[in-house]
Each structure stands twice: as structure tokens, then as C-alpha cells.
Design goal:
The protein is α/β, with parallel strands linked by helices and 360 residues long. It has 12 helices and 11 strands.
Length: 360
């Protein structure tokens, strides 16, 4: 049976750092909270962030999350990079008396009345709001590995930078994470993007796309929106990621664009970087080139090592002097021509290493 309808809600601004930009983002969100209660939720795993000029602040670390019974499991990155929904359950444990919860990452933005959004969620009896993937789940970068946990016909995916939960939906998600934490059959730990919408659908709870509640504008994993460009997005209800110049530049560099795109004036990379003063990023490019070159060399040497190991195994399996096809004592595939070495190391400068985002 559905609970008695109410519109008492909490808006939770999630962050792991605190500086002038993060504070500005928090104020922007507080300004549109309306009749709800506004909270700042801070992950202090990497250290305390210091004073925060908001009345409702909750702080926690990874150790707190694990002590609560949540599994210390992640397949890549870090505990909260893979499981950002863990922070939701920590907040629920401290503030479990709200009917609805709105969670927003520090680099996301809502430009519209959150109270109006919640009023519609209540009216339509919706349990969960997020933005479903706009690509078939089969094409999602992480879908192959997540098939160890969810059948492909049941798997769902969503971008969760802005989410809305009914209390019963949030309690159900926490229950499922706890159950899976002790289930030895869970071979691959699902990331938040797959876990939330899949489990909501499995539970039969009503869910809606964020797009039904406003215009998306630039709401995706990439590319970022520069904070000073917000006036150009006044007609967008939801935005992500919104960044200050430093974080904007870091995000573009982390996307690993081809190195040539840094010097081509018509490339997307140059167009994006030209949004900020060149003095902010030119000094970072040599470091980025060195990082990329080391990564490419490491990858190529790893392939060479694997090839040499395969050669050694094959040579052990073939008796000395035993002829094989072509009259040689070695198969053709293990005869490494000089041109092959040239191709191997020459490709270091030509082949970009493409960044694999959370969505692919």
C-alpha cells in the first residue's frame, strides 16, 4: 500500500571539498530549495574541509560507511566513485523522517523550483527520478562486466548527478545494498549507474526520467559548462557538470583528447580551452604530454612483454630443430621482423589513449 502523500522533503548537496566555487554552487541550490530543508553532505575521507557556512551539515568518511554494514567493494576508482549512492544511505540513517529526498552533486545545478518538482512527484506518486541512459544499455561501456550481476534484459542505467527518491525507495535501495553486501553470489559489484534504476525497476517502483520535469540543456557526463557561461543556459532546468576554470581545465585534460587537438585551432579541445585565459592552462600542457607519453609507453611495453611470454611458451612446446610449415623451425607469427619493432614504437606518438568515462 502506498504511504500517505506528503511533500516534506530534504535537498542534499553532496561534495568532498569546500572552496569558493563549491560554496557558490551550494547557495545556488539553497536559493531554489523553497519549502524543503537544505543540507550539505561532505565526504571527509581525504581530510576535514573546515568550517562550512550552512546550518545543516553532515560529515562522514568511507570508514563510517563500511561500519554501517555497506560492502567495502568497488571494481574501479574508489568506494564513493563507484558507489556514490552510499552517501544517500548515510544521510537516510541520520535524517530518516523525510518523505522525499533530492540528492545533487556539487557540480550539478537545478535552475527552477525544487518545491514544484516535488509537488509533481507527490501528485504522480513517483518513487525515483533520474536521467536514463540515452544509448541502448548493450552499448554502455560497463554493460559487459555488469552482466555478471544483472541479466541484460533486466539491466537499466541512469545518470545520477541529480536524483529524487521517495523514502520507501531510498530505504529499499539501502536494503538491497545491505543484502548484496553479504551475498557471496554477487561476483561483480554493481556501480551506482546500473544499480539504482535496475533495482528500482525490479522492485516495481514508479520511476520517471528527469527530462519529464524540465529542460536538460547541457546535462551529461561531458563536456563541462564553465561557470561564467551560466547566463547562456538560463533556459535550462538541469545542468551538469558546471565547473570553475580550474576544474573545467582539469576535466578537459582528463578526457584524454588526441594530443594533436591541442594545437589545431578548429578542434573541439581548443574551442573548449579557449573559453578560459590561456595562462590558466598552458603551463599544464607539458605535464599532460609527459603523463600521456608515459602511459602510452607503459601500455606498449606491456603488449611487448605479453608477446615475448607467448613466444617463450611456444618455443618450449616445439622441440629444438623440429621443422614447421615453411621449412623454418619457428612458426611465422613468432618471427618478429625489424619493421614490427618500428611499427610498435612509432605508434606511441600516433595513437591516443581514449578516456573511458562512467558511461562509455
Amino acid at each position: 500500500m502506498m504511504p500517505v502523500l506528503s511533500d516534506r522533503f530534504a535537498v542534499v548537496f553532496k561534495t568532498y571539498a569546500w572552496d569558493e566555487f563549491v560554496e557558490r554552487q551550494a547557495h545556488r541550490l539553497e536559493d531554489v530549495t523553497g519549502s524543503g530543508d537544505f543540507f550539505v553532505s561532505i565526504d571527509e575521507t581525504n581530510g576535514a574541509v573546515g568550517p562550512v557556512a550552512f546550518p545543516n551539515v553532515t560529515r562522514f568518511t568511507n570508514a563510517d560507511l563500511v561500519r554501517s554494514g555497506l560492502a567495502n567493494r568497488f571494481e574501479k576508482g574508489s568506494l564513493l566513485w563507484w558507489n556514490p549512492d552510499y552517501a544517500h544511505y548515510q544521510f537516510l540513517a541520520e535524517h530518516g523522517d523525510y518523505d522525499y529526498y533530492v540528492f545533487i552533486e556539487y557540480d550539478a545545478l537545478i535552475q527552477g523550483s525544487i518545491a514544484d518538482l516535488i509537488a509533481r512527484v507527490v501528485r504522480e506518486r513517483v518513487d525515483f527520478v533520474a536521467l536514463p541512459f540515452r544509448i541502448p544499455v548493450e552499448e554502455w561501456f560497463w554493460s559487459k562486466t555488469h552482466r555478471q550481476t544483472y541479466p541484460i534484459d533486466e539491466m537499466r542505467g541512469s545518470l545520477n548527478c541529480i536524483t529524487v527518491f521517495s523514502r520507501r525507495a531510498l530505504m529499499k535501495m539501502r536494503q538491497r545494498r545491505m543484502e548484496m553486501s553479504t551475498d557471496q553470489k554477487v561476483r561483480y559489484w554493481p556501480m551506482s549507474e546500473a544499480f539504482l534504476l535496475t533495482e528500482i525497476a525490479r522492485a516495481g517502483y514508479a520511476h520517471r526520467s528527469l527530462e519529464e520535469f524540465g529542460t536538460l540543456g547541457a546535462y551529461d557526463w561531458f563536456p563541462p559548462t564553465l561557470e561564467e557561461d551560466l547566463p547562456h543556459h538560463a533556459g535550462s532546468t538541469f545542468l551538469h557538470p558546471v565547473l570553475d576554470p580550474r576544474r573545467y581545465i582539469e576535466t578537459i585534460l582528463k578526457s584524454n583528447p588526441p594530443l594533436l587537438s591541442f594545437v589545431l585551432p578548429w578542434s573541439d579541445t581548443r574551442r573548449q580551452l579557449n573559453r578560459v585565459d590561456s595562462e590558466r592552462y598552458l603551463h599544464l600542457l607539458p605535464k599532460e604530454f609527459r603523463r600521456r607519453s608515459r602511459g602510452a609507453l607503459k601500455a606498449r611495453l606491456g603488449k611487448l612483454k605479453l608477446w615475448l611470454l607467448n613466444v617463450a611458451r611456444l618455443e618450449q612446446a616445439v622441440p629444438t630443430g623440429s621443422p614447421v610449415a615453411g621449412g623454418s623451425s619457428r612458426p611465422a607469427w613468432i618471427r618478429w621482423p625489424r619493421s614490427g619493432l618500428v611499427r610498435l614504437f612509432g605508434s606511441l606518438a600516433r595513437s591516443p589513449i581514449h578516456w573511458k568515462s562512467r558511461v562509455g
